[in-house]
Amino acid sequence: MADLKTKYLGLDLKNPIIVSSSNLTASVDKIVACEKAGAGAVVLKSLFEEQIKADTAELMKGVEDAQYAEAFDYLTKTGDYHFIDKYLTLLETAKSSVSIPVIASLNCVSDGSWIDYAQRLERLGADALELNIFVLPAAVRKKGEEIEQIYVNVCRRIRKKISIPFALKIGPHFSGLANMIKNLKDEGASGFVLFNRFYQPDVDIEKLEVVPAKILSAPEEMALSLRWIALLSGEIETDFAAATGIHDGKSVVKQLLVGARAVQLCSVLLQNGVDYVSTMLNVVVEWMDRHNFARLDDFVGMLSQEELENPELYERAQYVKALVGIS
Ligand SMILES: Cc1cc2nc3c(=O)[nH]c(=O)nc-3n(C[C@H](O)[C@H](O)[C@H](O)COP(=O)(O)O)c2cc1C
Predict the structure, then answer these.
(1) pTM tops 0.85, yes or no
(2) What value does the mean pLDDT take over residues 207-215?
(3) Is ligand 1 within 6 A of the CB of residue 51?
């Protein structure tokens, strides 16, 4: 039978399916269920920068310091205390309950002192760290370079703090995406999750309210990571995990063919249950057997831009009328 083993962030995974950071990985029971369903690894639900700041503020109670006012406010509003303790316990218990790699996750929007917490995650046995970074470029006075520098600073500081591998989970909104990824890799990032899917607001025109847009992804959304992993996997020596819109086994095969070392799943498992991992893996195995591929290395990256005779296929971005046959 086909061998599905892969290496991602230097970790040995029995197969390339990783359960994404989400509610699916927010408790030990659920993480055990992911392993039972056949997942190659899990990324824990994120610890958010705001939660770290709020927890720090709780410890500082009684200390007069305006800097913590915002965090205090957050803390009292949510009524949920000691996120960090809970998170560290989750990590520690998960590590002793499953044998697949457990990747801890930090969600951040600045290069502040929260970075120190990466060390605690390392000490408790996280196999790797995933940093979900997004700085909303909405401040009219903030230049693109300043925002990009935040990503670089985070990466640099994290690399100095920990020795376990870490991946950056980022969005596609950089004017120089390829160059940015190369820089972040040079600053020490071990891999990249392309791409994060952001919470989007929508408007209810009857209730005249702002409401969340669709929380779960659709399969069409996968085209974005497919193109970028195809463009970059042969160009930048790093590990790419594909994310967003991967809803079936064929899509896993596609992402591997363009050069992904692993894929991350969330929406499809929320919709079908975590056991759907094994259904998707069966499709990959059946496809590999049919094409006489014994192991992943036999075909990973085979359809990356670097390997194509007609590499501009991935660079074509504007529609040509004749191409799509629409008059
Ligand atoms: C309910 C829910 C909770 C999520 N929580 C997190 C989180 O804590 N940290 C994170 O990095 N991503 C989080 N995500 C994003 C997912 O990890 C994933 O990147 C995104 O849903 C796109 O993948 P998909 O198309 O397979 O759903 C969450 C997504 C959902 C739907």
Answers:
(1) yes
(2) 95
(3) no
Ligand 1 neighbourhood includes 251 CB (under 6 angstroms)? no
**Contacts with 220 (C-beta within 8 Å, 6 or more apart), sequence order:** 245
State how many domains the chain has.
1
Is any atom of ligand 1 closer than 6 Å to the C-beta of 45?
yes
Q: Which atom of ligand 1 is nearest to the CA of 193?
A: 19
CATH number for 241: 3.20.20.70
pLDDT value at position 114? 77
Index of the ligand 1 atom closest to the CA of residue 265: 26
Confidence label for 108 from pLDDT (cuts 50, 70 and 90): confident
For the cut 70, the answer to whether the pLDDT of residue 2 exceeds it is yes
Residue 1 falls within a domain, yes or no?
no
Tokens 């061998």 found at: 3
Q: What per-residue confidence (pLDDT) applies to 100?
A: 98
Q: Is the dihedral of CA 218, 221, 223, 227 positive or negative?
A: negative
Ligand 1 centroid from CA 206, angstroms: 29
Confidence of residue 64 (pLDDT cuts 50, 70, 90): very low
Residue 177: give the domain boundaries. 6-324
Would the CB of 25 count as within 6 Å of ligand 1?
Answer: no
Q: Are 167 and 9 in contact (CB under 8 A)?
A: yes
Pairing of strands 191-194, 201-204: unpaired
Does the residue 190 lie in any domain? yes
Atom 8 in ligand 1: residue holding the nearest Cα: 46
**Would you say the CB of residue 104 lies under 6 angstroms from ligand 1?**
no
DSSP reduced 3-state for 177: helix
